[in-house]
Amino acid sequence: MDSDDxxxxxxxxxxxxxxxxxxxxxxxxxxxxxxxxxxLLDVAMEAGGRVxxxxxxxxxxxxxxxxxxxxxAFGMIVALVVSSLITSxxxxxxxxxxxxxxxxxxxxLAAGALADLKDGPMRSRVAILEEHFANVxxxx
Length: 140
Description:
Order of helices and strands: HHEEHHHH
Mean pLDDT: 83
Strand order of the largest sheet: 1-2
Number of helices: 6
Number of domains: 2
Low-confidence stretches: 1-9
Radius of gyration: 19 Å
């Protein structure tokens, strides 16, 4: 069975390898980073007698999350950059880096998520999720 014949609903709409390669090529990233992403795209594994394109599904998920939650993604990237800069400070970086990095990541994630929650599309997605769970609870 081919990795394109996936019956599990969340992975049914995963873009093709060609589409993902085009997205990777359009990224404003170094050639090395693009090569790593292309290598990840080719990762596949066998599970339960089926070939699962794990790399393709991971990259599709990442691209989807960045598209849906741009402020959260931006907050995480800024936090990672600032953490890297702090860690690179001679002497103090070795001490401050491990202490501040988790705090900065948590702050970046929270600030970005709050900004995304203020957006209308995010609110509508949360409302749909709430409605789904309300229906599940009502129908036992």
